[in-house]
């Protein structure tokens, strides 16, 4: 069978490799001059391939339609993906949060493995080829219209990515084409993206990175996300791994973020800690007594929020003032007014509606000779390598099911 795969990202490449392994003639269409252009910049150029957690734990990290991915993730697990790369000479390492990276910290090494495998499996890759339209005959694709003319196949796999990082070629073209063929497509919106806040004090804290803090996101007063990790203050709001994961649950409306600077200490334990510090610095001004507890850049803000006179001696601070300081340290509120632009999102949410795709094969229920894979589908996960695993797994299943 002649199979046309559209999109040279992880989903399209894996679909091409697996289809070729099954004996099909495969042509991969890529609009750029190389495969994996977006893959190249993932993980800040280090490429967080997958996560080492048990595959059963992946689903709690997938906010939308996790049940749709059961067949894909169990058909091609993270263990199988890691074995795929190791067997082809790529040395892997595991970092905080069970994140899996190439030991070299170079995404180019990951792409090199994929490129060599395409060559080995005799997949024909046509670069600088953008699909512009599709010609249908009843419920079948007759041919694709591209910038290099028309191309025909027996089967087609759409794996064109989402709508972020426009320069990599992810601009929603295939989503629009899918909609024109009769598929329902949810609008693409940003996910895994920095959050914009109303408060101006974030500018004063710009560049400050906080580790081992808890960040909680509430939408319409309902808690939708809470976790402990690392976050970063910026001139417009907040970012960092913890915030990016929280953004997967963001919805416009009344949105509040809460920062707990000391999640490992209950209020009573934190109060005892403050009492020890104030005893140690009993003859010092309050503003100079928090150096053991907080980063120096954060101290002026916390002093201001506490309402305690910065020049007040520690031995004069009252119990009421101290308990109020505890509440400040455990609960810094932020008003979230939006996200950065979709072009700055690591991934996008939305895409082809899952109920119109067979989860056991990735085949379209609308078009008789079409499959989908990767970010084109309305599934997405938090940070930590889960999204790339979804791309590889859905790509594998799409190629395996032909």
UniProtKB/TrEMBL annotation:
Cofactor(s) for this UniProt protein: FAD
InterPro entries: BaiN-like, BaiN-like_dom_sf, FAD/NAD-bd_sf, RsdA/BaiN/AoA(So)-like_dom, RsdA/BaiN/AoA(So)_Rossmann
Entry-linked Gene3D superfamilies: FAD/NAD(P)-binding domain, HI0933 insert domain-like, Translation factors
Top-rank taxon: Bacteria
A Pfam family that the UniProt record links to this protein: HI0933_like_1st
Domain RsdA/BaiN/AoA(So)-like insert: 190-347
Key word Disulfide bond present: no
Domain RsdA/BaiN/AoA(So)-like Rossmann fold-like: 2-400
UniProt entry keywords in alphabetical sequence: FAD, Flavoprotein
NCBIfam families given in the database record: aminoacetone oxidase family FAD-binding enzyme
PANTHER family: OS12G0638800 PROTEIN
Name this protein carries in UniProt: Aminoacetone oxidase family FAD-binding enzyme
